[in-house]
Amino acid sequence: MCRARVSKLGITIENALKVRKAEDSATTDSLTGFPMRGRCIGIWKRNWRDGRRSNDPLTVLVLDLNGFKQVNDRFGQIEGNNLLRTFATALKESCREYDYAARIGGDEFVIVAPGMPPEAVAEIGERWQKIAADVASADLSGTRVVD
Predict the structure, then answer these.
(1) 8 Å CB contact between 82 and 145
(2) Residue 46: pLDDT above 70?
């Protein structure tokens, strides 16, 4: 009897882990490892409610890699994927520990930055814009992607 319960418990735990893995794969971009749009919306809503309650600012920045289509057209999807991974890594490294970065599709990313003072928004936006420009103008196969 005890062995049967342990067996059922093991199956229950195994099934719960499978469900968790399926949920993660449905909400995480496999290319960049970033959360996708659906998870981002939930995080944004929670931060928005928290900010309203505490009267703290909430900054949401949307970033787009200009010229990304040129990369895929000129160098192929593999190099385009490499560019997206490189950008995602650089973006994540530049975020504060409690900022939330997500890929919302294609070459578009969003940063949810709770508590960011309004005077810092322009500076941080410029920094992320520079990261995007640096990545987009990187050398791929010995040729500049964007002039």
Answers:
(1) no
(2) yes
